[in-house]
Structure formats: structure tokens, C-alpha cells
Amino acid sequence: MQLLGTAVLFMAATGSVKAQSSPDFTFGVKSGINLSTLANGLIDMSDRKGKAGFNAGIFARVGSKIYFQPELNYITFSNEYTFNSKTYTPKFKDLNVPLMVGYRIIDKGDLILRASAGPDLYYNLKDQVSPVDSKYKRTSVGGVLNVGIDLGKFTIDTRNSIGFTKLNKDFGQKPNIFSLSVGYKFL
């Protein structure tokens, strides 16, 4: 939780300084859908199905051709799988903090095509019970690859977030989340 607090303070401090001193600062809101799977190391787990989820958050973008984009998002995702003839459907509600470095591939005023990547930090807000009563971890780390387009004040982003750490010590589950979101830039 300390990490999330630090990230939020960093976004606020960076935003207030850059908004006053540079035109290369953007702040906005975004929302969209997620499709997820939980990759695992168990052969006994079958019938895995990703479920649709939701994301909403805020973002800041600092820089021009090369930029830094921290975000704070609330995301939901779930998965369904069968283990020992029993079906499980863990539903995750997380705070998500991607810290991306990006590059503007095309910058034609109101039309910007960009790509970014970086670490992705998660804090699970809801306890989940998995098979054999092994709990899911509260925090996890991953990486995110993002491609987006800005059309004036509107943004459209697609991203893939790949889990690096296991969500559950007994099953080796790692999240893989594909997201599509639309946003609006206030600055």
C-alpha cells in the first residue's frame, strides 16, 4: 500500500510542477474493458475461461516525443477454471499503477500515435479463496505494453499486462490482462 501512496504523491507532485512550467504535460481520465486469463503451472487445472472486467482511472503524461506516463486505475477481472472437478471463479478488484515510458511514433497536432511500456503494480482489494484454501496474494508485479492514439482531447488505448509474480503460491497463477480503454485529456 505504501508503494501505491508513493505513486499517487509522485503523480500529483509531477503534475503540479509540470503543469505550471511546461506545455508538455497532460492529465486525464480513462475507462474501458478488460479480458483476462490466469496462466498457471498446473496440469490438473482445466476449462480455463477468461471473463470480462472493467477499468477506470486517471493518468498523467509528462514529456513530448519521449514521455513518462504514470496512472492510477481501479480494475476488475476474473477467470473461471476447474480443479478436482470443482469450478472456481475468482473475481479480482485491484488498484493498478502502471509506470510507463513512451514514444510518440506520429505527432501531427491533434493526431498522436504512441507506444509505451513499463512495470505494472497491483494491490488486490478483495480476498479470494482458491482451491485447497490457499489465498491469493495482496500485491503483484507485472509488465505492460501499450499502444494508443490521441484524437484531440480523446484517447484510445489497447494494452497487454503480463504478470511476473504469482498471485497464488500453490498454483503458480499469473494474470494476463488485455484492456481497451477510452479517455479524455483535461490538460
Automatic annotation (TrEMBL):
Highest taxon listed in the record's lineage: Bacteria
**InterPro entries in the record, alphabetically?**
Beta-barrel_OMP_2 (IPR025665), OMP/PagP_B-barrel (IPR011250)
Q: Which residues form the signal peptide?
A: 1-19
- Outer membrane protein beta-barrel domain: residues covered: 19-167
Q: Which UniProt keywords apply?
A: Signal
Q: What is this protein called?
A: Outer membrane protein beta-barrel domain-containing protein
What is the species listed in this Swiss-Prot or TrEMBL entry?
Pedobacter westerhofensis
